Amino acid sequence: MGPFMTKDEVCERLHIQPGTLRGIMERREISHYRIGGCVRFDEADVADYVRRNAVRAAPVIITPAPVAPVTRGKGRPPKMSGSANGYVPGMKVV
Asked: Which residues does 32 contact at the CB level (< 8 Å), separation at least 6?
């Protein structure tokens, strides 16, 4: 066991209000001790509570930026030639 902390010290360490700490205690999310009518917290238990409630960052996946298509004036797409545009010589158009 490490040094004991008061409610005020725990609130200051966690940057929370006393009511928030009271709720954490009532839900038994953090270990605490009642000694002579006073509530005390073990420093290691407070550190353990912080570790258990850590939100891990998601891995960042970097994808290359999309390349804008080349246009030929007034935003029109470039001309297609040959069979790339779907035309096949001798094909009957319906």
From this structure: 25, 39, 40, 41, 45
